[in-house]
Amino acid sequence: MRWGWLALGVVLLVAPLTFQDPFYERMIALVLLWAVLASAWNIVGGYAGQVSFGHAMFFGVGAYLPLLVYTHWGGVPLLGIPVGMAVSACIAILIGMPTFRLHGHYLSMATIAVAELIRLLVTNWEFVGAARGLGGPASGRTIWDLSYRSSIPYYYIFLAVLASVLAFTYYMEKSRMGYYLRAIKAGQRAARSLGVSAPRYKLFALIVSAAFTSLAGSLYAVMLGFVDPDSVFGILVSVQMVIMAALGGAGTLIGPLVGAALLIPLQTFANSLFGGQGNGLTFILYGGIIILLSRFEPGGLLEIWNHYLAQKSRVGRTE
Amino acid sequence: MRNASVLVCGVVLILLGFSVLAHAGAPPVVKIGVIEPLSGNAAAAGQATKAAIEVAADIINRGHPELARLPLGNTAGMPNLGGAKVQVIFADHQGNPSVGQSETLRLITQEKVVALQGAYHSSVTVPATAVAERYGIPWMVGDSSSLVINARGFKWIFRSTPIGSNYAEAYLGFLTDLSKSGTKVKTFAIVNENTEYGTSVGGEIRDVLVKGGFALAAQIPYNANSTDLSAEVLQLKQKDPDVAIFVSYTSDALLFTKTFKALDYSPRMVIGDDTGFSDPSYIQNVGDIAQGVVNRTAWDIGKPGSATYRINEMYKAKTGVNLDDTSGRNMQGFFALMEAINRAGSTQPEAIRKALAETNLSPNQLMMGYRGIRYDATGMNTLASTYVNQLVGKEYVTIWPESAAHGSLMWPFKGWR
Amino acid sequence: MIALQVIVGGLLLGAVYALFSSGLTLIWGMMNVVNFAHGDFVMLGMYIAYLAVVALHAGPLVFTLLAAIALFILGAAVYYGMIRQVMRGPMLAQILSTFGLALLMRYTVFWFFSATFVTLPGSALSGSLKLGGILIGFPQLVAGVVAISLSIGMHLLLTRTTLGSQILAVSEDRQAAMLMGIRPDRMQALAWGLASASAGIAGALIATFFYLTPTVGESLVLIAFVVVCFGGFGSVPGAMLAGLIIGLIQAASAYYIGPVYKDVVVFALFVAILWVRPQGLLGTN
Question: What is the ipTM of this complex?
Answer without folding.
Answer: 0.90
